[in-house]
Design goal:
single chain, 273 residues, mainly alpha
């Protein structure tokens, strides 16, 4: 692969930082919205899933296959691509499996479901829920950060699309952290801080991935990494984004959002052909 310039690295890292810190937007919504706009969230979570599924299967998987076939031949390259894809699914599935459902950041939490903060609400259970949710989000965001960063290094337009899609799905995660911590402590500052910090795992994943992988980066490593990234993003979309969108009670809106996300992603890719 070509040497990567400093400007490209800064751009890729900036995109990853933007995607991760959008959890702060979710915490702000939790503080200032009296009710959860379920239609808005349902549509945009579906939109995010549509972008991620389309770009994973049409762009990222294809680029992984192209790189691996070039280096390993048609048979070896195809097998390696498929193996990397399902390895990515397996890795993110294992991460998701070990997060308790009570602290899972994709379990629905609505602003109006929480009582006003009082002494009864400021309890250990709520605080524990918020902290473990923040930890769960950090674990989820680590591979997402690597995905965004890697895509931005090779294709800035693709990196922007992935960053926006991940940023959208990080907003409800910010709510999931901020709400229980706020009602456990009564402090907006503490709730926002924990929500904000949980998003830092995104750029941290990018940084660690860069430090570990870049010295060894070649077409084979790139292809395997992109194949795994495609699997990770498809799993996140199917296991997290769509079920979360539908859990808000707006099945058709989430599907409309999904189709719109695919259409927008397809159009944006066609404009750069």
């Amino acid at each position: 692969m070509e040497n990567i310039g400093t400007e490209t690295l800064i751009f890729a890292f900036g995109l990853t930082l933007f995607a991760g810190l959008s959890t702060g937007i979710g915490s702000a919504i939790a503080f200032f919205a009296r009710t959860t706009n379920i239609k808005f969230i349902s549509i945009f979570l579906g939109f995010s899933a549509g972008v991620m599924i389309y770009v994973s299967m049409v762009e990222i998987f294809v680029k992984a296959k192209s790189a691996l076939v070039m280096e390993l031949g048609v048979v070896g390259g195809n097998w390696a691509t498929v193996g990397a894809f399902f390895s990515g699914i397996f890795i993110i599935g294992i991460i998701d499996r070990f997060i308790p459902s009570a602290e899972n950041p994709h379990e629905i939490k609505r602003v109006e479901d929480m009582a006003s903060p009082d002494s009864a609400g400021r309890n250990h259970k709520l605080m524990r829920m918020g902290l473990f949710t923040a930890l769960a989000i950090a674990i989820h965001n680590f591979p997402e950060g690597l995905a965004t960063f890697t895509a931005a290094l090779t294709d800035p337009g693709l990196g922007i699309a992935i960053a926006v899609a991940i940023a959208i799905h990080n907003i409800p995660e910010g709510i999931a952290v901020a709400v229980p911590i706020f009602y456990a402590t009564g402090s907006r500052k503490k709730a926002f801080l924990h929500s904000f910090l949980s998003g830092l795992a995104e750029p941290l994943g990018a940084l660690i991935g860069y430090l570990i992988l870049m010295p060894f980066m070649n077409e084979i490593v790139f292809g395997l990494l992109f194949g795994a990234v495609a699997g990770i993003m498809v799993f996140i979309s199917i296991d997290e984004l769509l079920p979360t969108a539908e859990a808000y009670g707006e099945h058709h809106l989430s599907i409309y959002g999904l189709i719109a996300g695919m259409a927008v992603m397809a159009l944006s890719l066609l404009l750069f052909v």
